[in-house]
Amino acid sequence: MKKSGNRTIALVGATLAVTAALGSIAASAQEKSKTALKVVVFSVNGASPTIHTMIETATAAAKARGWIVETYDGNGDQVATNNQVNTYITRKFDALINIASDNNQMSGVIANANKAQIPFVSTFSGMVPGITVDIGSNNVADGVIAASALAARIDGEGEVLKLNWTVLPALAERDAGFHAVMSEYKKIKVTEMELKVPGQVDDAFNKVTDFLTGHKDVKAIWMGWDEVGVAAARAVQQSHSEHKPFVVSMDGNDAAYDLIREGSPLALTVAYDVRGMGTQAVQAAADAVDGKSFSERQVYKKPCLIVKETVPPAGQYPDFKTCPLFTADIPKAN
């Protein structure tokens, strides 16, 4: 009886020890995001204002958690970006945060991250196999909203110039929204141009300037994002066209807000909560390292329709919880 009792005590002790160990491992996994993680925030085109804002916001949010953060700008070189991110995987970083670099062009990097069990979070980069989650906006819908507002302003007819860079998935989706709207307006004549990246600002300015020289009846210009939308507005301002076209765009950067506030040719932008996206990307990385699952690998944040009536005061940003998204919801001046 004594031997049996000792055996029972030993088994109970062993069970408790295993349970305690498992509990310790589980607690450790749950709290990994509270340790000094090493993360990288990177982009193939970090100088673009909206992308730069997301990088800054994500970096600040990560550092606020006590994480060690490195950043990388590929300066328009996707191959260099891929090679550099692979070095972060080799160096055993805890999470990778991709800001607006085409995930379709990073399949090898994403596969390496998966093999190393490193979360790969992205913003505005497209949903592809292997990513943890991509955070952005429904760009097709946003392209529809901008194009619909444009068509309404020209009463569904006239000449329209469109410039975009359709390599990035978010911009290609906006393009699809634009075409969905324009297919319904047979009296709108569209001329399309593809922009060069890098060098997109100068390219946009020059292309718009040259086009307006030979096309005096252009009513409106649709631009894929605000960085080049601002350049297009500057080109219109400096043109000698008697009837200057207005410009619509998407992103919501500070320069665009300033031009809309001033009553420039930039009349409208569909603005994104890019600061919220940067913060949410860091939260997603934290959830991933803690072993939490994601019910969806593509999540959208609500945009705002910014026109002169809704543009925020200088130094402020839209309230994305309450701002209007459709023209019928824009408050009218008394």
Strand tally, please? 12
CATH class bucket of the largest domain: Alpha Beta
**What series of H and E elements makes up the topology?**
HEHEHEHEEHEHEHEHEHEHEE
% residues in beta strands:
15-25%
Instruction: Kindly give the count of domains.
Output: 2
So, CATH architecture of the largest domain?
Answer: 3-Layer(aba) Sandwich
Q: How many individual helices?
A: 10
Shape: elongated
Describe what you observe in this structure.
With 334 residues, this protein is α/β, with parallel strands linked by helices. The chain has 2 domains: 33-135 and 275-300, Rossmann fold (3-Layer(aba) Sandwich), CATH 3.40.50.2300; 139-271 and 304-329, Response regulator (Rossmann fold, 3-Layer(aba) Sandwich). It is built from 10 helices and 12 strands. Helix 2 crosses helix 10 (274-289) and helix 5 packs parallel to helix 6 (169-182). Mean pLDDT is 92; it is low at 8-27.
Write out key terms for the chains shown.
334 residues, alpha/beta, Rossmann fold, 2 domains, six-stranded parallel sheet, six-stranded mixed sheet, 10 helices
Quick take:
With 334 residues, the chain is an alpha/beta fold.
Q: What layout of secondary structure does this protein have?
A:
Layout: H1 2-30, E1 38-43, H2 49-64, E2 68-73, H3 78-90, E3 95-99, H4 107-115, E4 120-123, E5 133-136, H5 139-153, E6 158-164, H6 169-182, E7 188-194, H7 200-214, E8 218-223, H8 226-238, E9 246-251, H9 254-262, E10 266-271, H10 274-289, E11 298-300, E12 304-306
Parallel strand pairs: 1-2, 1-3, 3-4, 4-5, 5-11, 6-7, 6-8, 8-9, 9-10
Antiparallel strand pairs: 10-12
Helix pairs in contact: 2-10, 3-4, 5-6, 7-8
